[in-house]
Specification:
Strand order of the largest sheet: 8-9-12-11-10-13
CATH superfamily of the largest domain: HUPs
Number of strands: 13
Number of helices: 10
Mean pLDDT: 91
Shape: elongated
Structural class: alpha/beta
Largest sheet: 6 strands, antiparallel, barrel
CATH architecture of the largest domain: 3-Layer(aba) Sandwich
Number of domains: 2
Strand content: 25-35%
């Protein structure tokens, strides 16, 4: 096992799925400690996250999304370790040897951090290599913050609560692909994102912002099956307000602000158009674009 990271770094290690407020506290401390000591900062993370690998649950962040989220903490290096069957067999001793080769300045990790085959390694093992600052679970409103809870909230469509635990708006980053183009015919053209089926997404209709072509736009997104067109596969499609450029093949980032409504099936295209107009007005109010 070879970790391509700078020597003498302050190192944070973890799954960091979603980069929630607990992760943010830990990563902020990594950055501060690195600056205080004049050392580089490095993040070692895994994709897919261990829980996703072992249980098949959906992930909050793709590898690319995780890199975008980690940029906020200005690490000098992010090492994304593929969590696969080969890595699963990595022993505690092999993992420690790879870290020791980096001559770490310090570690900043979760207090319950475990590593190596059979979860044999712990914070006390890291402490044999360098000083460790362990972080315990963060709570908000008496509720422990964790990636599993964020997934539950998203599954219920409660993006506002999920965003509070994340400390930022939930994001989906992907490439725009051609869809059925029905939106163009009814005056609400949409950008359809190509996303992994393992990406956790909240079902419903949402007020969103979209980073595209170097600018940010308000919009509304429909996520999940299309009740009016049940033969189509589930999707994330977003209508950008006051936007007319071609986005096919472009990478865009959608950030969820608030849920507008559940999905419903409409009896006619006229009913659908009327509801979409109402959705746009509601989204503009939420985004302060009215």
């Amino acid at each position: 096992m070879n970790l391509q990271a700078p020597h003498g770094a302050v190192i944070s290690i973890g799954n960091f799925d979603g980069v929630h407020v607990g992760h943010r506290a830990l990563l902020s401390r990594m950055t501060a400690l690195a600056r205080e000591s004049g050392a580089p900062a490095a993040v070692v993370t895994f994709f897919p996250p261990a829980k996703v690998f072992f249980t098949g649950t959906d992930y909050l962040s793709t590898a690319e999304e995780k890199l975008l989220l980690l940029e906020e903490f200005a690490p000098d290096k992010v090492v994304v370790v593929p969590f696969d069957e080969d890595f699963r067999q990595t022993t505690k001793e092999e993992f420690l040897a790879a870290l020791a080769a980096l001559r770490p300045k310090a570690f900043v990790v979760g207090g319950d951090f475990r590593f190596g085959k059979g979860r044999a390694g712990s914070v006390s093992d890291l402490a044999e290599l360098a000083p460790v600052e362990p972080f315990e679970l963060v709570s908000l409103g008496g509720e422990p913050v964790g990636s599993s809870r964020v997934r539950e909230l998203l599954a219920a469509g409660d993006v506002e609560s999920a965003n509070r635990l994340l400390g930022a708006r939930y994001m989906a980053h992907g490439t725009v692909v051609k869809g059925a183009e029905r939106g163009h015919t009814i005056g609400f053209p949409t950008a359809n994102l190509r996303l992994s089926p393992r990406k956790a997404l909240p079902p419903g209709v949402f007020a969103v912002t979209v980073d595209a072509l170097g600018a940010t736009f308000g919009g509304m997104a429909n996520v999940g099956p299309r009740p009016t067109f049940p033969d189509d596969p589930p999707s994330l499609e977003v209508n950008l307000f006051d936007f007319a450029a071609d986005l096919y093949g472009q990478a865009i980032t959608v950030r969820f602000t608030a849920k507008l409504r559940d999905q419903v099936r409409f009896g006619s295209l006229d009913e659908l158009k009327a509801q979409l107009a109402a959705d746009e007005a509601a989204a503009r109010r939420v985004l302060d674009l009215a």
